[in-house]
Amino acid sequence: MSTQQYDKIGEAFEGFKALPLTHYAEVPSFLALVGDVRGRSVLDLASGTGFYSREFKRRGAAEVLGIDISGEMVAAAREMERREPLGVRYEIGDIAELPLLGSTFDVALAVQLLNYAEDIPAMERMCRNVHRNLAPGGEFFILGQNPDYRFDGPSLKKYGFLCEATGETGGTGPRVRVTALLDPPIRIEANCPRRDVYEKCLRAGGFSDLTWVPLKISEAGQARVRQRVLGGPRRQPATGDAALPRVNRTPHRPTAAGDGGGGPRTRSPAAQRRRPALSRAACRVRWSRSASVGALWAASAYSRAAVGRSPSRSCRYAATAV
User: Fold this and answer.
1) Any residues with CB less than 8 A from the CB of 223 and at least 6 apart, and which?
2) What average pLDDT score do residues 186-208 get?
3) Pick from 53, 137, 208, 236: most CB atoms within 10 A?
4) How many other CB atoms sit within 10 Å of the CB of residue 233?
5) Is the pLDDT of residue 148 over 60?
6) For residues 284 and 317, is the Cβ–Cβ distance under 8 A?
7) What is the DSSP letter of 183?
8) How far is 116 from 23, CA to CA, in rounded Å?
9) d(CA 82, CA 87)
10) What is the rounded CA–CA span in Å between residue 279 and residue 299?
């Protein structure tokens, strides 16, 4: 995983969370997806400046450890902890090489992590390392690039981002360039892993039976879109419903994940022009001796899928646009 682009950003990364797409879609959806963490231990992987680490500590987590590969991002997170002590610990580390941490965690978070894996073996290592650091019955939540995002669709500029294909292909999927329209703008490049790559790597990490479920724009975000973007109270914004598979952990005989019966819903070209696509993703994983992985996915393809259940562990994966 590349560290240089994030080392140059540091604390300015906090500005991402104020942009409409993250403020009204990513943040409320991801917090709702993770749910109640009171009394639970949380492992925040690719923790960046510690936004979610701090948020879940404020929400009652008993212990929070944030790990990021960028020394500058960790330094920014530690400085914010110094200014507002919450009891969050931060460490520098590469998740693809993450060792056993000495104690297991009830909840693991991976916000914009898997899309930085250089290739499939690296992503598989990440998934295995997360799995072995989760306690039985623990949960894994992922937010990452949406493999169904259409780069020729409506622009996300009015929502604070640009998302462009670079024309190159990485080890897990096409390369993308994301620009956060801050002052000054911040540009980041990463892979956009294919759907089959996510599924393959999660299975290799010990998870199966993936299920895709929708990510939603908050009520406040819908009101803002109606009033300021769509120009009237009756027109509804698009969330780009989609779903990612939930997975059972079957270490010796992994089961094949179904597609949940979902598929893209077709819309007229005019309707697609009116409805902006979303492209980021979030996932929850629960596991014990037979873990389950589920995924929450808001995709540009306007697709949906049934949410399946698995015996013990689960992962959910959500997508917004970027």
Assistant:
1) none
2) 90
3) 53
4) 9
5) yes
6) yes
7) S
8) 23
9) 10
10) 6
End-to-end Cα, the chain, rounded Å? 18
Under the banding of pLDDT at 50, 70 and 90, the label for residue 113 is: very high
Closest CA to 33 of 184, 183, 123, 142: 142
pLDDT value, residue 316: 57
Question: What's the 3-state SS for 101-165?
Answer: CCCCEEEEEEECCHHHCCEHHHHHHHHHHHHHCEEEEEEEEEEEECCCCCCCCCCCHHHCEEEEE
Pairing label, strands 134-145, 314-320: parallel
pLDDT digits (tens, 9 = 90+) for 257-276: 333 333 333 344 444 444 44
In the chain, how long is the greatest CA-to-CA distance? 55
Query: Which residue from 60, 42, 56, 45 is spatially nearest to 105, judged by alpha carbons?
Result: 42
Helices within 184-322 (DSSP H only): 195-204, 219-224, 269-274
Instruction: Write the DSSP symbol of residue 123.
Output: H
Query: Model pTM?
Result: 0.75
DSSP run (H or E) holding 120: helix 120-132
The answer to whether 137 and 128 are in contact (CB under 8 A) is: no
Nearest-10 Cα torsion for 290, 296, 300, 303: 70
Give the residue with greater pLDDT, 79 vs 291.
Answer: 79
- DSSP letter for 255, please: P
- Rounded CA gap, 180 and 161, in Å? 5
Nearest in space to 189 (alpha carbons), one of 165, 209, 158: 165
Q: Is the pLDDT of residue 153 over 70?
A: yes
Nearest to 114 by CA among 101, 125, 103: 125
Model confidence pLDDT, tens digit, residues 51-60: 999 999 999 9
What is the distance between the alpha carbons of residues 109 and 299, in angstroms, rounded to a whole number?
20
The dihedral through the CA atoms of 297, 1, 52, 289 has a sign that is: positive
Partners of 68 in beta bridges = 92
